[in-house]
């Protein structure tokens, strides 16, 4: 316990001692004033230090965030046991040692009532300390979650933008290389290629800033791009499209087919006698680009933008992998077809966002429970005091104490009960099914 807490406890002891001296003490002497302040300090320091020690010890052993249920269960058990012992100790010092009363009446009559009443007050103090500890721990946790979410989102967005920005100059550079070759080989084809390239480049500019496009849009663009390649290579390259109609409304990353088609051309030689056959088809939720393998020697090292760009962009959008298969006869790339249109900002931290939302909801539930418990601990002792002061022969306080107590117990079961495990399991199952769909 820090210095500030000790000063606070000292002031509380001082004012409680004065209050008891003014309103309840029969002897108005300086000695009695000091005795009341001392006894108030005895109760305040013993109960506060004892409960503070229990609270700090439990918080070190069990986290409010990670082990909430254990923290509450052990907290309730330890708090009740410790407070009963501390209250009996303080009352023994007060009544038996200072007031010289007979120990035989310690658990009955006025001393018995004082024991019971003081235990309730001590439990109230402990509940406040535990609630304060709980709120501080969850505030730290939520602040940390918010900071982590911002960092993840910024990092993912920056990385995604960087990858997309590779596409524009990359496509332009490769298209100009093709055009340069055509100018020498066939000027008329070069002119038609230039006109077609302007249309395709417009698509590149429109789509490169999007996270996802429909399979249908990407196929239409790929067919136009294949016509360009046909213009240059003529019968040396053949293209085949076999994509299910039901897959065309789903989504892929933009310009993925263009990059993969370009990859096929760049790494394979093709002649009219031995044409390069490129097939684009769908299978089991994937879009496949396959070509017969006729690898050419690389004069210079590849920049590696094509495949790595696609793999990285998909990794930022989904947990589904891009598969690359190679044999002596073929080379195949499988890219996932996504069923939901998502964005880089929401897909990468999806599990963290869900956890954060659930944590926020959990905080509200626990705040409601502790508010209910603290209210109960405050109001019931007051009602007992009013009952015993106004009508000591009829104990009506049992009715609100039992009725409200059942409500508090029901609230505790709702917040910490067995049903919550079932609910969390169902939520987990639903989330896993949604992830599999992607």
Automatic annotation (TrEMBL):
<dbReference type="Pfam" id="PF06580">
    <property type="entry name" value="His_kinase"/>
</dbReference>
<feature type="domain" description="Signal transduction histidine kinase internal region">
    <location>
        <begin position="158"/>
        <end position="236"/>
    </location>
</feature>
<keyword id="KW-0812">Transmembrane</keyword>
<dbReference type="GO" id="GO:0000155">
    <property type="term" value="F:phosphorelay sensor kinase activity"/>
</dbReference>
<dbReference type="Pfam" id="PF13239">
    <property type="entry name" value="2TM"/>
</dbReference>
<keyword id="KW-1133">Transmembrane helix</keyword>
<dbReference type="InterPro" id="IPR010559">
    <property type="entry name" value="Sig_transdc_His_kin_internal"/>
</dbReference>
<keyword id="KW-0472">Membrane</keyword>
<dbReference type="GO" id="GO:0016020">
    <property type="term" value="C:membrane"/>
</dbReference>
<feature type="transmembrane region" description="Helical">
    <location>
        <begin position="7"/>
        <end position="25"/>
    </location>
</feature>
<feature type="transmembrane region" description="Helical">
    <location>
        <begin position="396"/>
        <end position="419"/>
    </location>
</feature>
<dbReference type="InterPro" id="IPR025698">
    <property type="entry name" value="2TM_dom"/>
</dbReference>
<feature type="transmembrane region" description="Helical">
    <location>
        <begin position="31"/>
        <end position="51"/>
    </location>
</feature>
<dbReference type="InterPro" id="IPR050640">
    <property type="entry name" value="Bact_2-comp_sensor_kinase"/>
</dbReference>
<protein>
    <submittedName>
        <fullName>2TM domain-containing protein</fullName>
    </submittedName>
</protein>
<feature type="domain" description="2TM">
    <location>
        <begin position="358"/>
        <end position="431"/>
    </location>
</feature>
<feature type="transmembrane region" description="Helical">
    <location>
        <begin position="72"/>
        <end position="97"/>
    </location>
</feature>
<feature type="transmembrane region" description="Helical">
    <location>
        <begin position="369"/>
        <end position="390"/>
    </location>
</feature>
<feature type="transmembrane region" description="Helical">
    <location>
        <begin position="117"/>
        <end position="135"/>
    </location>
</feature>
